[in-house]
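Lecture 7 notes. Example A: sequence first, then its structure tokens.
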Amino acid sequence: MLVNILIICLGFAGLIWGADKFVFGASAFARNMGIPPLVIGLTIVAFGTSAPEIFSSAASALAGEPELAIGNAIGSNIFNLGIALGVALVIKPITPPKSLARKELPALILVSVICGLLMFNRYIGPIDALLLIAVVTFFIWKLFRGHRSGEVEAIEEEEIPDNVSTGKALGFLLLGLALLIISAEYLVDASIEIAAILGVTSGIIGLTLVALGTSLPELAATVTCALRGHHELAVGNIIGSNILNILVVLPFPGLLAAGYFDSSLLTRDYVAMMVLTALLVALCYPAIRARRQLGRLSGLAFIMLYLAWFGIMYYQIH
């Protein structure tokens, strides 16, 4: 048990560090190849914070554990809203930008509803995965179309490394990719063993332990943005990550390990995700109209809802 916990901790460290090196190397390599900074920002840099969820879910699906992958995606979204955003708001109030009302929030609502419709029959298969891939393709197309029409703000170019040789960039890219793959594989194997030892489903481990560990980048990024006064990035990071978790993470079990999953992932965990999403929408729209901040009470509300969900789950499995 202790050995598995140590492996999981090392796996989290490998995933987070590997994602950082992968994004650094891929961004520098793409820049050296003449790819515009905005394109790099909308693809490689945006991919960075969701890379741990993506690779761990892919490894879960390959290991024949679709519930672990589904639990990771849903659990990460619950953690992002309940803890990452909640803690950030408690530390420092955030003013939600107007763009959220027109772009990010409607996209999050649409994607979350689509997720529920696909999960309604308690089965994730190839058709569900292809539908999610089609939606993410549409969103990427909209992003680039918005860029051409001047509707998308420019990416901060300091996020993209320069003065890095192509050989060095490629080395970091390959190192990061190797760390992501190896760390995800060991993390999933250790998680499956812990689930067996504790006598719980792999979905529970995905919802809690794996979701918490793979969401650490979002927590760090959101708190940092809030402290620096980057309000749009603080909220946008959470919304963007939740959209990616559904559209990019969930297709893996559908394509690689299609099958039925435990009903509690829908009736308890998806519902919890939607309650937190509804709270975000209910708080953001009035705040945007009145040009006021989301304060510490809002943060406490997110945290309390997360703790309530966790308490219900703990009660049910015991």
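Example B, a different protein, same format:
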Amino acid sequence: MLNRLLSVILTLFLITLVTFGVTNILPGDVAMMIMGTQSNPEAMAGLRASLGLDDPLIVQYGRWVGGMLTGDWGNSLIFRQPIAVLLGEKILASAIIVVMSMTIALSLAVPLGVWAAVHRDKWQDTASSSTALLGVSLPDFFWGIVMILVFARWLGWFPSSGFVDPGEDFIGAMRHAFLPSLALGLGLMAHLTRMTRSTMTGILEQEFIRVARAKGLAERVVVWRYGLANAIGPVITIAGLQIGYLFGSIIVMESLFNYTGMGWLTYQALLNRDMPLIQATVFVIAAVVMLTNLLVDLLYLAIDPRIRLD
């Protein structure tokens, strides 16, 4: 466990190096973005000096990391607000989508995967595999467009854009988050369905399953209590690894639905060359993915005590 924690810390350190290095070679000048292209050269030079932009990169990097550790994340150039405040507001919005997407994906993928494994090489298996293949083949933004057309425009069941603070209107927040969550969940469901089917197929061929059937246990008990109980660990592990996929896709999805979460914030930062905000959002997303994977490992350990974390 200690080795795993040290690995997470080392990875986060490497992420800060890569993030800082990449953002410093991107086109754009922070001082020019603040003052504009028509600013006085002397005033521009003075601002660069006050911001420390003329310091060596190693000094700038140390100052940035030190600020991140102490909570001083600087100010956004486009929103004119402290970055820490912005991230605190947006991370909750995106967390709602991530949790709802994963819930939708697992709720659909596990029954479909088990159904396919139980009816291996039959029409049920073909139908399930075809559904998963369809989900994998089509990009997430396509599902997003379909959700908007069907559920927002034609049926009018859900809003097509916007964000509502769950503290002010919980039901409204869930309604605004449902369509982007469903679009992401369908893409993720396809991956998890194939994983569940593959794992369950192997489990159902094990000796202890044949013994359970020989004892006369009901098939539903054999499949769901014994089979799925042993297959769920790998499925949860793969689901945890897909958190990174969700945060990558959420940038496109939140922009499509104008849902003002972390993905939307990252897109705005990239679009406007807001370097301090780009650095912060990339680091936070990477940190959330790393910590989520660590929590998934701990959950896997709780599910199967035979697993040992080195």
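Note on Example B: The two ends are 5 Å apart (CA to CA). The first helix runs from residue 2 to 25.
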